Amino acid sequence: MFIANLSVAEALESLRTTEEGLSNDEAQRRLKEFGYNKLEEIKRQSILLLFLREFTHFFAIILWVAAGLAFFAEVNAPGEGMLALGIAILGVILINGIFSFWQEYRAERAIAALTKLLPQQALVYRDGKMQTVSAEILVPGDCLVLEEGDNVPADCRVIYASGVRVNTATITGESLPKARIADAVTDNSVLNAKNLLLAGTSIMSGQCRAIIFATGLHTEFGQIAHLTQTEKSSVSHLQQEIARLSKLVAAFAAFLGLVFFVVGTVIGLPFWTSLMFAIGIIVANVPEGLLPTVTLSLAMATQRMAKRNALVRHLPAVETLGSTTVICSDKTGTLTQNKMTAAQIYIHEQLVSVADHAQYENEIRLIQNAQYCHNLKKSFQKKHYVLLGDPMEIALAEFGRKSHDFGDIPVLSEIAFDSERKRMSVVIEHDGVRWLYCKGAPEMVLPLCSHIDSRNVISPADQAVQQQIIAAQNRMAKDGLRVLAFAYCRLEAEQTPQEENLIFSALIGLQDPPRPEVKEAIERCHSAGIKVIMVTGDHPQTAVAIARQIGLIKSDNPLVLQGEALRKMTAAHLHLALESPEIIFARVTAEQKMHVVKALKRKKEIVAVTGDGVNDAPALKIADIGIAMGISGTDVAKEAADIILLDDNFASIVNAIEEGRTVFENIRKFMTYILTSNIPEILPYIAFVIFRIPLPLTIIQILAVDLGTDMLPALALGAEPSDKKLMQQPPRPPKERLLSWGVVIRAYLWLGMLEAAASLFVFFFVLRQSGWEYGSMLGNTDPLYLQATTACLASIVMAQVINLFVCRHPRASAFPMKLSHNPMLWLGIAVEVVLILLVVYTPWGNELFGTHPLELAVWGLMIVLALGLGVLEEGRKLVARRFFSK
Question: Where are the membrane-spanning stretches (predicted)?
C-alpha cells in the first residue's frame, strides 16, 4: 500500500488521523514509538582514538623505535648526543601526527550540516487547534500547514493544495519547481509522486495542508543522510603512495640497521658503537623531513588554489584532483547558472531570440501578461524591490519589466494555477479597459484560443495556425526550453472573467542558461584527456540540450540513461555503458548517482564529482574527489566535499586540476632532492664499518640536514609554477608510483652517489691535510675529527644547493628556467647557507652538532665539487633529451 495511490480519506485512515490532526496525548505516544524527527549520528570512534591512531602507523613506529633506541643509548652512554637525537625524532612524530589528525577530524563533520537544513519550528493541527511546535517532535499522522517560503520538515502526503509548487532540487536535482495536488496518483515513486512533499524541500508558491507519513531517518532526506554517514571516504592516491613509500623506506631502514648492527658486532665493534651505528643507518635512511614537507607543500598549494577560487578542505585532495580521469558533473547550478531566463519567443509566426527586441517591443498585451500574470511577492532589500517566489515566474516578470515597465497596476482578480488546468489568469485594468491575461502549458492554453494576434492584427486561429504554433513549441522543447503559451482577451465592463475565446499572443521559452565560461572549460578537460559525464536529476531532453550548448556532446546519438533504466542495469551492463564516448545520466536519484561513481571507480577511474544539493552529498563523499559549489551549494554538499568552488564556476575545476597535476610533479622534485642526501648520509656509516675509518658523519649532523638545511629548499621545489604542457597531456596512470624507478635511480644511484663521493673526498682532504694516516682512529672530541666531520656535513649542504637547481625538472635544463618565477628558491638557498654557517661558526652550533670552524680553502673545494655535480647532471639531461626524448 503506497500512500500516494490512496485518496485523501484513505490516506488519513491509513495513518489513523484526521484533517484536524492528532491529539496531544496521541502525538506524545507516537513520539515514543517513532522517535524524534531528527538525524541521528552513527557512533564513531572517539577523538582521542582518532588522535592516537596517527601515531601508530608503520612509518611512525619505526621512528618510535629509533627514538627509543636513542634514549636507551643516552642512558647507558651519556654525552654522545643521543638525547638531542631522540627529542628531534619525537618532534617529527608529533608534527606529522597533528597534521594528519586535523585532516581526519575535519572529514567527519558532514552530518552537522544536514541538521541545519531542516526547519526548527512547524505549524500543525493538534487537538483541533493550529499551533507551532518544534520540528523535532513531529510524528507520523501530524497535520502540517505549509505556505510559500516554508521548508518541509518531514515526508508528507498533501490533503489540500492551492497553487502549490515545490522546489525539489536539493533532493532530486530537478531544476524546475513542481506542482503538488491532493488527489491520488498512480505513480509509485516517492520522488515523482505529485501529492507528496519531501523533507528538505521548500514551498515556492501556494499553500497546503499535509499529513506526515515519515520522520527522521525514515524520510528520503534521512536516507540520503544515512548514505552520507555510512559511506567511507576514499583514500587518495597520494595517501596510498605516501603510505607505500613510508613502509618501503622504513622497512629498508630497519633492515639495514639490523644487518649492520650484526655486522658491527661480528667484526668486533663495541656494543654501544654497533648500536649507535644501527641507529645512524635507520636515521639516515628515513627521510624525517619528507612527510612535513609534503604536508606543507600541499598547504601552499591550497593557498594558490584559493586564489583561483577553489577552497581545499582536505590536503590530499590537491594531488588527487590532478590525477582525475573522469568528472561527474551535476547540471543545475554547476554547468548552468541556476537562474531561469526567457530565451526564445515565438511571435508573429517567427521564432526569435529574446535579445531581438524589435520583434516584440510594441506587444503591450504580451508584455503586460508577463509582467502581471503571477503570484510573486515583493521584498524591499538594499533600496530595491526584489521579487520572491517561483524562479520561472520571476524570469517572466523580469522579461516584461525590462521590455516596458508599466509600473504598479493592481490585479483585480485571479484564476489561480493548479496542476489540472496547468494555467493561471489575472485581470487588470489599463487605460480604463479590463484585460484578462492567461499563461500556462501550451496544450492547455491553445485550445482556449479562437484568434491570434499578429502585429496587433487579430485573425482567426485556424488549424494550420495551430499546427505552426505546435511545431514551434516542439522546436523550443527540443532545445531544452520550458515553453509557456500566452493569451488574452478584453473584458466588458461587467463581464465575469472566463478563460474562453482567447487571443493567442506568443510562446516564450525559458531556460536555465549554461555558464558562459563552461564551454571553454569542457574543451580544456577534453584536451587534458579528462572525460566529463553529466549526472543530473533533471529531464533528459533538458540535459541533452545543455550538453550540446557547452560542447559536452557533439554526436547525433549520445547515450542517455535515465534513473529507472539505470536501476535495472546489471554491473556488467553499466560497465559497458560507461565506455561510451558520450554519456548522460538523467532523472537519477542520490543512490543511483552514487552507484555510477562506484562503477567508475571499479573501472579504475579517478573520479571527481561536482554537486550542490543534498542529493549530491553521498556521491561527493565516496568520490576520489568531491567538489561542491560554494555559493549555491547546500551546507550538506560542502561538508561532504573535499574542494569547494568559491565562485561556483566549473572553469575553476580545470584550474584546480592543473594545480593538482603540478603538485604531484613538484612532490617528485622535492622527493628527489630529499632522497639524494640519504646516500651521502648512509655511505659514511658503511665506510666506517668496512674500511675502519673515523665516522665521517654523526647522527645529529644527519638530522641537521634532514630537518634543518633541506626543509625550506624542498618547500621551494614544492612551490614551482605550473608547466603549461601538463594540461596537454593525458591524466597520470592510476598505478603510477610516486617513488618510481626513475626517481630511485636518479636520486640514489646518480645524484646521491655524486654527493657521497664529493663529501667523502672533502672529509679525507681535511684529514690528509693535517697529516692523518689510514688506520689511525680519532677521538670524538679531537679538533681534527670535528673539523673533518664538519667538512663532510658542509659539502653535503653545498651539493644540495646545486641539487636544488637541477631538481627543478627531470629533463629540461636548469639554465633557461627563470628564478623570478619562484622567489622561494632564493629564500631556500639563503636559509640553507645561513644555517650551515651558524652550525659551523657559532659556539652553540659547534656544541650541539659537534662541528668545528673550517678554513676558506675547504669551502672553495666544496663549491667546485658541488658545481661539478651540476655540470654532470646537466650533461645527463642533455643526453636524455637527445637520445631518449619521445
Answer: 47-71, 83-102, 248-269, 275-299, 670-691, 697-717, 738-764, 784-805, 825-844, 856-872
Report the chain's C-alpha Rg in angstroms: 36
Same domain, yes or no: 795 and 783: yes
User: DSSP secondary-structure letter at 243?
Assistant: H
User: 146 — phi, psi (to 5°)?
Assistant: -125, 145
What is the pLDDT, as a whole number, of residue 112?
Answer: 47
| Residue 886 pLDDT greater than 60, yes or no | no
Is 332 in the same domain as 415? no
Its pTM stands at: 0.68
* Domain end call among 495, 511, 527: 511
- Domain-located, residue 169: yes
Q: Amino acid letter at 763?
A: F
Q: How far apart are CA 447 and CA 469, in angstroms?
A: 12
With residue 443 as reference, give the H or E element that holds it: helix 442-445
Q: In this structure, are 674 and 788 located in the same domain?
A: yes
Q: Which residues of 140-169 are buried (b: 16+ CB within 10 A; e: fewer)?
A: bbbbbbbebebbbbbbbbbbebebbbbbbb
For residue 731, what is the DSSP state? Answer: P
Cα 553 off chain centre by: 24
Same domain? 720 vs 864: yes
What average pLDDT does range 810-832 have in this prediction?
81
If you ran DSSP here, which 8-state letter would residue 725 be given?
G
Residues 198 and 168: beta-carbon distance below 8 Å: yes
3-state DSSP percent of the chain in helix, strand and coil, to 5? 50, 20, 30
- Looking at residue 218, its amino acid is H
Q: Is the pLDDT of residue 464 over 70?
A: yes
Cβ atoms of 745 and 679 closer than 8 Å = no
Q: Which positions are annotated as active-site residues? A: 330
Dihedral angle of Cα 400, 404, 409, 411, to the nearest 10 degrees: -20
Question: What residue numbers bound the domain in which 361 lies?
Answer: 341-511
Residues 323 and 373 in one domain: no
Would you say residue 63 lies in a domain?
no
For residue 514, the cross-strand partners are 336
In one letter, which amino acid is 656?
A
Stronger pLDDT, 429 or 380, i.e. the higher one: 429
Supply 861's cell numbers.
673545494
Q: Are residues 292 and 369 in the same domain?
A: no
Query: Which residue, 414, 445, 409, 440, is CA-closest to 427?
Result: 414
Closest CA relative to residue 824, chosen from 737, 717, 735: 717
Tens-place pLDDT, residues 568-614: 888 889 999 999 999 999 888 777 888 899 999 999 898 999 877 66
Evaluate whether 173 touches 67 at the Cβ level (below 8 Å): no
Confidence band for 111, pLDDT divided at 50, 70 and 90? very low
Q: How far apart are CA 19 and CA 10, in angstroms?
A: 12
Q: C-alpha grid cell for residue 771?
A: 697529516
Summarize the confidence of residues 765-787 as an average pLDDT: 87
pLDDT per residue as tens digits for the range 23-51: 999 999 999 999 888 876 555 556 777 77
pLDDT class of 117 with cuts at 50, 70, 90: very low
46, part of any domain: no
Among residues 555, 466, 550, 481, the alpha carbon closest in space to that of 512 is found at 481
Q: Are residues 25 and 154 in the same domain?
A: yes
Residues 217 and 349 in one domain: no
Q: Which run of H or of E encompasses 438? A: strand 433-440
* Helix (H), strand (E) counts: the chain: 33, 26
Nearest to 749 by CA among 675, 851, 819, 663: 675
- Is 59 contained in some domain? no
Integer angstrom CA distances of residue 462 from 250, 468, 484, 801, 863 = 86, 10, 20, 87, 96
